[in-house]
Amino acid sequence: METREALLDAAEAVFFEKGVSRTSLTDIASAAGLTRGAIYWHFADKVALFEAMVERGSLPQEYVASMVQAHGAPDPLDLIQNSALESLRFLSGNERAKRICTIMLLRCEFVGEMERVLDRMRQADESMFRTVVAAFEEAERRRFLSRDWTAETATIAHMSTMSGLITHWLKYDCPFDLLLAGEGMMRSLFEGFRCAGACDKKLLRSA
Prior knowledge:
With 207 residues, the protein is mainly α.
């Protein structure tokens, strides 16, 4: 297990530095102070090693999907917004998650042997989409959601905002406070999602 973890640590570091396509198994073995034979003892190929590396982390989509449970929530829109902010807090404070997201979004070409790795991202995106749509549908049913939006279009807008923010933050080496920027963006976005009547009811409850 120590050898396996050393290989995964080395793969994470070298993929982050050089990109996946430019990294060879020899590069990873050398970074770990081991041989290629040690890699083949634990992993069938570079894709298997990559997949195991990703499994050690948690993608923001998976984090959001695990948190959003709309049924019975006092305010489904607050639940979605707060879950999004928690995922940004998790990402900004977790170096492993940050490196893995950077590798998957910016250091990997999903062609050839790496194409099957897209399944993990697709599954994470689809799981988050289904979960968030269900929460927006609950908000729609309870008339929290503005008539300018449907549950599906609100979900697309929300996921696009999150994806764009995270990608921009990672692409330029985290040049701003992710959580602070996210709080402002989510506040403005969710004010647009919420119908005026729901805002009035929320103010009355808090008074």
